[in-house]
Amino acid sequence: NFTSLTLGAIALAVLVLGVPLANAEAPKSQPAKPQPVQPRPQQFAPPFATDPLMVSADLVEAMRLIGVDPQAALAMLHKINARSPNRDDVLTRLAYTVQVVEKVDSAAYYYKQALAVNPLNLEAGKALGSIYFAQGKEPQAMQVFNGLLDANEHNISAYRMVATAIRDLGHPDEAVKLLEQGRERARAQDQ
Questions:
Q1: E strands along 3-117, which residues?
Q2: Sequence-ordered list of residues with C-beta below 8 angstroms from that of 83, at least 6 positions apart, any chain
């Protein structure tokens, strides 16, 4: 009915315009004198909030910045990491960005941290193993790769990721052998 619609409109005006409820009245035959509306300061989420969606949006923005200004991306990722510590996705992006600005030892540190938080992180494991391979530390690289396979219960995705890394590092024969091992292991588990 008209009265409930009018009261609903008044309630909406109170919420939207901030008009105090004491000034809100049901309509009369004479129009009420309009009350001045005081602007409310807008409330914005603080930058780099810990809200997962905000962190994800900030990560996307930081990754976009890498091609334009890697140092700005790095600064942004350090801030995100300070506000949302122990997130493997943040640590992995931070490691990648550090690697882009040619600080490989620092990149390895952040990749290790990402794997400590989430041993299933294929991206961090692949990157860390690749760094070790590039540095001539093949035993350490294989230790990382084998740890990645173990953590991921030797699933075929992990084998593909590790084999791709090994192939990209110039060892295609070893990559094929690793994929064959993964296939044999998968067959044995299916039986």
A1: none
A2: 48, 49, 50
